[in-house]
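TASK: fixed-backbone design
INPUT:
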């Protein structure tokens, strides 16, 4: 099964980089996969890293992977292909061959070169966040706000270490 494959991959990577005991997946797009990840890793300690909406939207607008996801969400949604669906979300990869076929040989480069508007990016961020939070329903993740982490890193890194039941190594706190 896929979960066993991921566990083996993470264990191998952890051994390769020095015998790490925990692994953290922190990509922004993983929120939409929250339900899938919870099923695959039911014992995982969940952390919801949040950032204020306007700053997130400005960042997403300039990130090529987000530009591609926004383009797909806007253009494939009306065709019935929901990029944020809990079972068929874009992280599962099944849509990428279709995107390549629709956009042509140099289409992906053209798509990521185009900066989406703030309203379009904000709508995508909002939809992704709502869908992701639905996948966390019933879970009790540590809510870690980017702004709090920047303002008081020591306190929040200690809380993160405690939540992960790994402590916060001194190197994290310096």
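OUTPUT:
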């Amino acid at each position: 099964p896929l979960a066993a494959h991921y566990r083996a991959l993470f264990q191998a990577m952890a051994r390769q980089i020095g015998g790490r005991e925990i692994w953290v997946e922190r990509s922004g797009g993983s929120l939409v996969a929250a339900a899938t990840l919870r099923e695959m890793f039911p014992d995982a300690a969940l952390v919801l890293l949040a950032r204020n909406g306007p700053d997130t939207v400005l960042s997403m607008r300039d990130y090529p992977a987000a530009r591609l996801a926004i383009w797909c969400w806007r253009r494939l949604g009306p065709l019935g292909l929901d990029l944020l669906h809990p079972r068929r979300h874009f992280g599962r990869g099944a849509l990428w061959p279709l995107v390549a076929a629709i956009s042509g040989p140099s289409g992906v480069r053209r798509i990521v070169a185009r900066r989406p508007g703030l309203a379009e990016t904000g709508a995508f961020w909002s939809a992704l966040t709502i869908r992701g939070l639905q996948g966390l329903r019933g879970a009790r993740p540590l809510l870690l706000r980017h702004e709090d982490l920047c303002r008081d890193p020591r306190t929040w890194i200690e809380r993160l270490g405690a939540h992960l039941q790994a402590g916060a190594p001194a190197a994290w706190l310096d």
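COMMENT: The first strand starts at residue 47 and ends at 50.
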